[in-house]
Design brief:
The protein has 283 residues and is of the alpha+beta class. It contains five helices and eleven strands, in the order E-E-E-E-E-E-H-E-E-H-E-E-E-H-H-H. It is extended.
């Protein structure tokens, strides 16, 4: 796993140096957009409509639009200064709560935490892990990731400390904004009884192994079938522009050098004739 963050858990007066790793990965089947005529991958370019030219990454800055068409520009130094004020590399534990008190709608992304080094840091990491297991509590903390401070839940999963980023309350939309909800929320008693029996009948212990992405599996099987059946489209070889420029430059240089050689030869020949004329006049 690739380390994506190094910092520390602030637990009272104890600092626990940790490394953070992404706990999940996206396994969606990825596709490229191709030009239908020739199957060449499409390129997306960043272009300034005012200057009417393509823009390089180092020409781009971040601006906040505080009024239509008016921006305040923030530099990386600005972001670093703000981050230092909010303990950018610290997972600051605020409270301990019961996991059941946090509705799943608040959870966003999961990260594994590991001690940075063997020794005192690992001992403190293990102490916090065991204390949380014994208390059956999770920690609510704050952390800044990629210039965004977020709430987080710190808990134990398979003997590892896991950090789950969670949304702030104002980031969760109010259910009152959902259109088309029935006004009468009371269900028929007999229908409710039957639905309860159905739920009881389908109730089992959660086993994540038995669930799979049927669509992804079917899509991969279709792709394999097409490859085996040689239904494969090849993109044409597009010569690199810099190679063309280099060849043109070499040919132009050779042509220019030939011109210089011819001129030098002519000049040398003219000089030789001139010298012979001088000798003839002396004689």
């Amino acid at each position: 796993m690739q380390t994506m963050f190094k910092g520390a858990i602030s637990f009272g007066l104890v600092n626990i140096p940790i490394k953070m790793f992404a706990a999940t990965e996206d396994k969606d089947v990825r596709f490229k957009y191709l030009h239908k005529t020739c199957n060449t991958p499409i390129k997306y370019q960043k272009k300034c409509p005012t200057c009417n030219k393509d823009i390089q990454q180092d020409e781009i800055v971040k601006g906040f639009e505080y009024e239509p068409g008016r921006y305040v520009i923030l530099t990386e130094e600005d972001f670093d200064a703000v981050k230092s004020e909010v303990h950018g590399r610290v997972i600051d534990i605020l409270d301990f709560v019961n996991l059941t008190e946090i509705d799943p709608i608040f959870f966003d992304k999961s990260y594994y935490l590991a001690p940075q080094e063997i020794g005192a840091g690992a001992k403190a990491y293990n102490l916090l892990r065991q204390a949380m297991l014994a208390s059956d509590k999770i920690a609510v903390a704050k952390i800044t990731i990629r210039n965004k401070q977020t709430l987080a839940a710190l808990r134990v999963y398979n003997k590892v400390l896991v950090l789950e980023t969670i949304f702030y309350p104002d980031e969760v939309r109010d259910t009152k904004l959902i259109p088309g909800l029935p006004e009468n929320m009371e269900a028929d008693s007999k229908e409710l009884e039957i639905a309860g029996k159905l739920i009881d009948h389908l109730t089992q212990s959660f086993d994540p192994i038995k669930y799979k992405d049927d669509y992804r599996e079917a899509l991969k099987a279709l792709i394999d079938k097409k490859i085996q059946g040689k239904e494969v489209e090849m993109a044409p070889d597009v010569p690199e522009k810099n190679v063309i420029d280099l060849m043109e430059a070499l040919q132009a240089s050779l042509k220019e050098n030939n011109k210089k050689t011819v001129k030098a030869t002519r000049k040398k020949g003219n000089q030789k004739i001139s010298d012979e004329d001088k000798l003839t006049k002396v004689r």
